[in-house]
Amino acid sequence: AVTVVWLRRDLRMRDHPALTEAAHAGDTVLPLFVLDPQLIDVATPRRDHLLASLRALDDAMDGRLVVRRGRPEEVVAAVAEEVGAEGVHVSAETTPYGRRRDERVRQRLERDGRSLVATGTPYAVGPGTLTKPDGTAYQVFTPFSKAWRTHGWPGPAPMPRGLRWARADSEGIPDGPEVDGAGEESARRRWKRWLDDHLGGYDGERDRPDLDSTSRMSAPLKYGELHPRTLLADIAAHEGARSKGAKTYTDELCWREFYADVLWHHPESAWHDLKPALSSMTYSRARKPLEAWQRGQTGFPMVDAGMRQLLAEGWMHNRVRMITASFLVKDLHIWWPEGARHFLAHLRDGDVASNNHGWQWVAGTGTDAAPYFRVFNPVTQGMKFDPDGDYVRRWVPELRHLAGRAAHEPWAHDEGYAHGYPERIVDHKAEREEALRRYEAARRG
Ligand code: FAD
Known about the structure:
Keywords: Chromophore, FAD, Flavoprotein, Lyase. It comes from Pedococcus cremeus. It holds the Pfam family FAD_binding_7. This protein is mainly α. The chain has helices spanning 17-25, 37-40, 44-60, 72-83, 96-111, 141-151, 184-198, 202-205, 218-223, 228-237, 244-265, 287-295, 301-313, 318-331, 336-346, 352-363, 378-385, 390-395, 428-444; strands at 2-7, 28-35, 66-69, 87-90, 115-118. The longest helix is centred in the middle third of the chain and has 22 residues, at 244-265. Bound molecules: flavin-adenine dinucleotide.
């Protein structure tokens, strides 16, 4: 018998429970990827990475990956029919769009007498698995992370033995540029190098965008080139397993799982405030400041460096994501979904759970204890986390003539604006007061 494995956020060969399951259920396995117009025609950096990852996967599958374009319920049903498969195997999808889509596909397959078999998820602990003792969902990270560690996860899934591919026509993978680091093998090499070089020091270095020493695993995790279970097993087996770095890194992976869990329980929180407390908040709809922020032309060096890194690389350091997001929400008074949309359009790792809840964390409308009245100062944050100004000079050429931390304060130097860097578009102190005034008014209702 033939089984189909329909791949989505699991573009890898190793540690792939759905593939292992498909191989056990059939003599041959047909690997299918559907180019869903809803997902493929959106953001360029994500599409480029996806296509590069598909090319790598196709190589690993001896050129047998079948790629078809169309609505998933039609394509999956048609392919299953063509090859006579009874079962279509997937890793369960947990985002609001993915869950609705999979339900449509399941119904369609069942109408034809076939089944959709879900094994595993893109997470170590599947979203929706953990609940508080009273049966409700966690809303706060720390208790969730305790429950997550206590629950634990299985070790990596074994490679299926004697895996043989079935054949079907493929439309082929659309052309796209080479993408550095895309694909399971590249991600794996980067990961192993990072483990040896940086795991132990992660705790001390992770907040420093100038050092660029975080793992850059967000895109591999997004496409499932590596599974978090693999990363956790590698950490446990590493000589630095007991270091503070290993503990902190595991917590970061847990943040990813936490946000996926929150989204699973509250699908509407993808684009609406999770907590209604600030629903009467007034926001600005001004286009000009929004565009200045998007282009990295706000006149605040740390904000502009981050926004330009995003446009250039499709990635931004976590600390700078927080600084730039805070600036949009608290200095420009723009509602967080505007920023979340821009990030998703440009991030290679763009992920609705981590991104939109990361934004809500900054805005004070989401989970957890980030107090709404904490307003980041973009200048002191810059000096603290980019102490020598290296990160700013890397991304803002108009400030390269300023040595050391002077790059964070062009206004304090005679030649500060000599190379065309823009003046500040707002007065941070005044906007901070304005933000606090708005938050107070919203809280009073
Ligand atoms: P590392 O520091 O090496 O962390 C390891 C892994 O832990 C990351 O790959 C990621 O999977 C996870 N992780 C780390 N920090 C967080 C966090 N705060 N929340 C959730 N997971 C985390 N991450 C995304 O993957 N996609 C997004 O679209 C995204 N948008 C964000 C938007 C905002 C406003 C903020 C504040 C954060 C966002 N993050 C997002 C989280 C974080 O910034 C990135 O995961 C991280 O910068 C990726 O770089 P890295 O892999 O080198 O991180």
